[in-house]
Amino acid sequence: MTQAIERPGADAPVVNRPQKANRPWIVEFASSAVGKKWIMALSGLGLIGFVIAHAFGNLKMYFGPEDFDHYAESLRTLFYPIIPRTWTLWGMRIGLVVLFVAHIGSAISLTRMNQHARPTKYASPRSYIAANFASRTMRWTGIIVALYLVFHLADLTWGFANPDFVRGDAYDNLVASFERVPVAIIYIVSNIALGIHLFHGAWSMFQSMGINSPRYNGARRAIAAGVAGAITIVNVSFPLAVLFGIVG
Amino acid sequence: MTLTLDPQIPEGPLEDKWDNHKFDLKLVAPNNRRRFEVIVVGTGLAGAAAAATLGELGYNVKVFTYHDSPRRAHSIAAQGGINSAKNYRNDGDSVFRLFYDTIKGGDYRSREANVYRLAQVSLNIIDQCAAQGVPFAREYGGLLDNRSFGGAQVARTFYARGQTGQQLLLGAYQALARQIHLGTVELHNRTEMLDVVVKDGRAVGITTRDLLTGELESHSGHAVLLCTGGYGNVYYLSTNAMACNVTATWRAHRKGAGFANPCYTQIHPTCIPPSDETQSKLTLMSESLRNDGRIWVPKGYEDNRAASEIPEGERDYYLERKYPSFGNLVPRDVASRNAKTVVDEGRGVGPLHNGVYLDFAHAIERHGRSTIEERYGNLFDMYERITGENPYETPMRIYPATHYTMGGLWVDYNLQTTIPGLFALGEANFSDHGANRLGASALMQGLSDGYFVGPSTVAGYLAGWLGTEAVPTDDPAFSESLDETRGRIDSLMNVNGTSSVDHYHRELGKIVWDYCGMSRNEAGLKKALSEIPALREQFWSDVRVPGRADGVNQSLENALRVADFMELAELKVRDALHREESCGGHFREESQTEEGEAKRDDENFSYVAAWEWGGEDIQNDAVLNKEPLSFERVELTQRSYK
Amino acid sequence: MNVLKLTLEVWRQDGPDAAGGFETYAVEIPDDASFLEMLDKVNEELFRAGKEPITFDHDCREGICGTCGVMIDGQAHGPQKGTATCQLHMRQFRSGQTIKIEPWRAAGFPVVKDLMVNRAAFDRIVESGGYITVTTGAAPDANEIPVPKDASDSAMDAAACIGCGACVAACPNSAANLFTAAKMQHLNLLPQGQAERWSRSEAMVEKMEEFFGSCTNHGECQEACPKEISIDFIAMMNRDYAKAKLVNRRRLGERKVG
User: Fold this and answer.
1) Same domain for B378 and B494?
2) Which of A136, B367, B431, C196 is the most buried (most CB within 10 A)?
3) Sorting pLDDT into bands at 50, 70 and 90, what band is B597?
4) Dihedral of CA C204/C209/C210/C211: which sign?
5) Does B506 fall in a domain?
6) Which residue numbers of B are catalytic?
């Protein structure tokens, strides 16, 4: 909140609470906005890794039910028998939850900070030059992806959003789900939102972590666009393939 | 003569004067420094450097600026560079040569001892600034680069692209910011000084106006340093920033400080000419353009053809014709005067016939467009932004404009004015540039005064006051000053006439420019002396200041400044009338050689004219005091650039 | 020279706490006037009509002091790239156009009056660490420390910042990262600035965050910057801040004081 100013117009109004002194460095780092952007970048990087692996694994769908179900089962037996069955999967799930919490938590905190930073909006319409659709809609594409994630889990992991759900029968569950046109549309729209989110996020990540050099700066946009494009195409292809009867 | 003009020049040979003097000056021990309050007005190069240095030393410093941030002072606009006798180029430079060039460039109207000290200190300035992180231009080996500048045959100018002033000011501002952070310096931004408080003949504080609330305040100190720049805006149109003003130094003058050589002003030859009546300021184009551009006007009068339609035979490259050996590279004052001559003859170019061409066609033909683009690309872009004309295709139009004022408060070797305890640093004083300043020397002087000279000599003054408290602000001297200032504001607010402050400023500027600009004569100056007081009277009976005095009111700020310009203008013209010789930036038509060049009169005018406030009828009441100039080490010669 | 007939909608606000609103003025102005000269003309006319002129900050009018700056039709410093408001000329506009003029909007830049805002927060950021500690007279010979030309050039690109606040104004989040990064990297890039590099990086970032929003890498600031300073400096600041948190710990063997 803005402090009372003794000499209006001369003192700098403090908008955000200053850092408290003498805290562990990691706490200081995590409570600064620049630190939070680091957290968003690092957790984002982990989540991009997950999304890539997830999409890649799902390509097994095009090999038929046996291959796909075998792949699904293999996730539960990863590193078995060294590690007991499903333990690795649960480890990854916990890891993902941590990443999501860190990513979304930082986003909420930064969004609130930014709302405080501009209490009065411009009356004239802004003509943006550099800020693109992706960068300005991160908040909304992020929310769409998060809601979609919950639905996706309810639909294909927990099953209560899918009347034809049979535990362990991954391929049939997937086909049964995508055959419903509204569900397919949800999947398509959400994955496009994810692509848009990644288009800015995967580039922004480099910037937030200071990965920046004239030698490869040109490549950063290309990498971001490539990752976002590839993931979107692969993920959107699944419901389309079911709808058009290529898979089923 | 009633002022005591003792320049306090130390004994000994020129080379040893400053060292001897620093030894002779009394010191204040580190543990005693916090007992002293020092007021610094202005945060340009001189002010920011002085405040930072005094803060570092341990004094309690209050620094004042009318800007929102100290970093905005007009030192920031200096483009070219800063001179220093480092001799990194091994081209024969030395402290003595820099001293000699500066004295000669100033047309032998400055004080030898001061100029020599300036040349000595120039060495420390570059060290200081480089250590602060000023990004000076570098060679590939990582060492500092130099360029050459007018008036010198050595390359001694250090530069940071075309933004040297900005970078040096940021260096000083950052040093000041550090002191503000440490609490040794208290920053008063958006606060304008409106009066000096004098008690028992010495300066004890200032009266200020808070530009946000309109409140008048008293500030008390053991010493007051005025680092408030020059008065070029007396011409209304100049390359100075809009807010540059004479109020601080003029108020000091009215309180007893001698004002020296107000007629010395420098007119810069390469500025963009005004385009219409709405013009608010003039923009300087770097002097370096004259290295490749050729200056010409049509031979015929009121020629309305476009430049490209004027055949070679009908062009007059008048500088090349008149000064075959220097050509387009004659010094600033000569180039400016000649431009005025051809424009006055009716041979000016552009829609208003108020400029001369600076043509790059030959240079582009000779070196190719890319070379010219590399050298001057950013200047060409700036020119195009302002005029909408492409200088690669049509010649630039330029005309001289007021740029710097060599005159200012009279100060002795200690930079102390005729009021004890009141010091003037940088462009605000008169001391180092004589009648004309060389390029890249203004930054040098500001920093020399601010970092090195002022802090030493101010300590010498303060040492004498150890054990005395600063005069409390409830002293009658302060309340008198407050009342007087309040009275001035009230009367301005209450005139309630019909015309705006800007209107009067423009009118004043026209008079001063027409009669006391690039060339001056007795009849014109006398005419100005009759017109200025009349305008001043009209101003005080007809101006209207809208708004209220108890809050932000830019019209009122401006009115207070213009009111003081009205008075200074009269003194300036009076000074120009009395100096019946030509020297540097002061060209009296009566005093010229057969070829039309400036002719000094060393027998009668080799002195500093320090004017003393005598009363409101300035041209008759002002009292002339003379500080004779003697030259031990240089021989006086007449300049020639044929 | 053409004369433009324009309609202006200008934000008027009497004081920091007063409510503000737009007022509409008609103006005719030659196209070779600057944008601020156009406002001067409006003020002359307001004066003649017995009204109070528009308050706006300005000084050098040659694009270097950083005092001026307004939002022109939703763009900081108006439509011309790399140009401060004072250097913007009216030939960038068409006759008949309506131009909306607003002050910079940010909680860190409260409006003082009309189009004038308070940018003291920038000074506080510099005061927190934007300097190299070198007392007057303590400097070694200037050529004692060679500075690689590319480091010096890059530092100069950062140091070109005029502190106008357009980056904050243009940023959808009112973040001051471009300003802070430019001030910081100017010094962090130079050998002279290394001694205080990590403490400077920490102090300036944390001070900045007291006043402004956070960077979400839109890149609007770099487009609005009249000196076209690159957001690469923001990346460098992000790296230096993280390093500072890791590196700037007490050294081995160092005794803890206090």
Assistant:
1) no
2) B431
3) confident
4) positive
5) yes
6) 332
